[in-house]
Design brief:
Chain B: It holds the Pfam family DNA_pol_B. Chain B: This is DNA-directed DNA polymerase. Chain B: Keywords: DNA-binding, DNA-directed DNA polymerase, Nucleotidyltransferase, Transferase. The complex is a heterodimer of chains A (about 210) and B (about 725). Chain A is of the alpha/beta class. Chain A has one domain: P-loop containing nucleotide triphosphate hydrolases (Rossmann fold, 3-Layer(aba) Sandwich). Chain A has eight helices and nine strands. In chain A, strand 7 and strand 8 form a beta hairpin. Chain A is globular and about 40 Å long. In chain B, the strands form seven sheets. In chain B, strands 18-20-21-19-22-23-24 form a seven-stranded antiparallel β-sheet. Chain B is globular, with a radius of gyration of 29 Å. Chain B has about 725 residues and is of the alpha+beta class. The chains are: A alpha/beta (about 210), B alpha+beta (about 725). At the A-B interface, helix 2, strand 3, helix 4 and helix 5 of A face helix 2, strand 17 and helix 11 of B. The structure holds zinc ion. The site of zinc ion has 4 residues of chain B, from loops. Zinc ion binds next to loops of chain B.
Chain lengths: ~210, ~725
Amino acid sequence: MNSQLPTLEPGVTFLDDGDTPAALYRLVGRHLADANGSTYWLDARNAASPDAIRRHADGRVARSVRVARAFTGYQHYELVRSLPAEVTPRTALVVVPNVASLYAEDDVPAFEAEAMFDATLELLAALADALAVPVLVTARERRDRVRDAADRTVTAQRTQAGLRVDGPSFRTDVYWHDWGFQTTIPYWVDLLGAADADAEPAPVEPAAPEV
Amino acid sequence: MAFKIDVREDGVPVRWATDGEGVAATADPEYEPALYAAARNDRTRYLDWLADAVAPDPKVTAVERERRFTALGATERSPVLRLSIDRLGEVRQVGREIRQREHEAHAPGVLSLYDVDLDPQFRYCLDTGRDPTPGRDLRTLSLSLPPAALAADDLTALTVDGDSAGDDAAAVRRGVERALESCDPDVLVLSSGDIVALLADAGVDLGRRPGHRKLAGESTYASYGRVGHSPARYDVPGRVVVDRSNSFLLGHSSMAGLRYFVERAGKPLQEVARDSIGGVLTALEVRHARERDVLAPWQKRQTERWKSLDTLHAADRGGFTFQPDTGGSAGGANGDAGGSGVHEAVHELDFASLYPNIIREYNVSPETICCDCHDGAAVPELGYSVCERDGFLGDVLGPLLDDRAGWKARIAAADERASTDDLEAKADAVKWVLVSCFGYQGYRHAKFGRIETHEAINAFAREIMLTAKERLEAAGWHVVHGIVDSLWVTAAPDREQTPVREVAAAVTDEVGIELEYEGRFDWIAFCPRKRASGAALMRYFGRWADGTAASASERYKLRGIEARQRSTSPFVAAAQRDLLDAFDRGRAPEPVCDRLARHLATLRRGDVPRDDLVVTQRVSKRAGEYRRASRAKAALERAAERGFERNPGQSIEYVVVDDDRSGAERVRLAFEDGTAYDADCYADRLVRACASVLGPLGWDERRIRQYLDGTRDASLSSFGDGR
Ligand SMILES: [Zn+2]
């Protein structure tokens, strides 16, 4: 839609979303609005709330999203390994939120968790590389490791003016408010067009706890 | 038949079997346990590598190539390596070492290991085909020590089968030894496993041979999002140790319930007694999987299938709830009271054991859901296929469902003089397993669990409930409330009704699961949902119509309100039941508040015995981990000061004596002497309990206090110096 927007390029993008979990849904919705092909959302810690995703993605886009949830490090690793069988060059996006979380749990021995986590980062990079698809990851734990492994980092911050997203490939002052976009920033309406106003949601609720 | 398996220091199992009235011990030095390894995509070169890698390991005595099923849904056996292990009890260690070696040589997950984390005693019975069911009634001796005495290492408070063991250390020793000699127990039921160590220090061996072993130290763990505490575990030769403080099944059933699962799961009594419900279920599954020649995975690697958001959304919906917007009477006052209110002449209908029956009748099982060999969208809303092959989970639960139904029928048919205690205890024990099997399917560490199974059960349940609702409405009934597996109906005005039992029978035929007629209520009251809780916590109470009550002794049915909660003090619980009587007399709020005022006056006069004010609370943290001053924190601090340590997951019993203070002076522990209590604190709880009763009429705490303030002006005397 607009090159100024944080659309995601092929390669691994680390979204450093600090205390703003809603940034993930916004980035995904923004990226998919313009994309064709399906999206694979490899979930951890119940980030994949259908309501939250739909609030930021219209019906067509939302229908393209496939989700599989991992509840242990072993499952996460197996799902990462299964991605090459699912993802094609026509895939719009691969989303891997909380990429390190399940490896930090004490139900996996540390050495094994470490090896699986390393392999996960390697596999995601290789997948992005080989098929030239964008891969978006977030992390609460081991952010430095994830940042190093990523091709680029995008940061999202909560500011007084709303949500601020910074990245290498787009302007640094793109703001969203929790309740909608910041209309006082003049170029905003030009940037997004008025249609997006309806798509902007209420603050995203945290998802329900896992089973 | 061996009722107890000891594992000697050298790893040799010793079977203790009943022999007439006595016992006989047999060592089995030939026995070797085994674990199995399979390779990703059945690549046998990884198995070759493993065979070489473990060759020098003295713990591994033999390596054989076999073919086994490595998953419930597998259609072909996979090549596996069977590693025989020298010592029972070293299997897990070997498993960990293989993981370490694999880590050094290969990518993670190249090998999958099986039959690693089984209880050694259970494994022995499984491997050797020995039935751990005792050949005669076991003799039981019960040893108890109050918590405070245990904390102080004071054995003089010890009781043996209820009688004091002795007044000083020497007398206690003689008393216990005499009891052991005269009873020669097969089972020791202890109030705490630590009694084994305490008595050993005092020179008493509780076993049939000298010595004892501490199997595991105490630990705190998290499970299902809850903090639990598991106390130290002990083992003595030749006798089963049952720690009453650490036996869910004994606490919720009885020895008869434990014995049932010993037989069904093939797991010895001591190990079953220690099991959580999930542990019992796993044992039943592991045993049944063996019959299908399926190995038990160590780490579950099965993943969720890729799903659309629509499927995910549909799958994540909880159980059925139907809460009409328009309640009776004054419900809905605060706009958040959907479905609350009082209804007259209500029939309750329940699907018996809905979830386990769905598993069996609809063939829902990890290997049948989303199978590749059958098309179709058998599961409503989700469109998953269901295989026609005989489902594993239904085979595991079927005998439990049938046994329980048989006991229930015998209990109902029993004449009054016959004791049905054992039948009821067994029915209770099985009930816990049946109610847990659905949640367990969604539990991430469940060996044979699968999230799609969990989702499918839920989807079938919703459809079944909707069908029942539609049929009842078509037959002239108005559904006033429905949740999970229960429906409440009244006659729809201006309509002819098909008799409700007739409708229930038709629904039963249609869905294949019995819709039982539970009974008729003269009235039933549904409380407003609590605003904060996400899960629809169901709170209601009703009075059974004469002659219809499920059990004649209970006049009311209560769910979710204070009088039913373990944490409620006896005084508040009794007062709430009294308020229910007042409610029953006119279903008007004022007379209930007048009763409340009398209980408040009793409280304020200081007339309530301290024992009636004891609050039992499960603690979730250590004292230092509470961020805010709370009563639980105060109780923990007080307990610590008195050398009586309580850990997260354990319960603590206390009386609030001064709620304005923080720290140990705020409370007294239940076993401390004294008569003082904080009347204001308990008055708050009373008012809250009253608000639960009046919630269906639209009265909340504030409204109750307003009313009390009004009447206090009129008659100060009944209220003392209260606020
Ligand atoms: Zn099939």
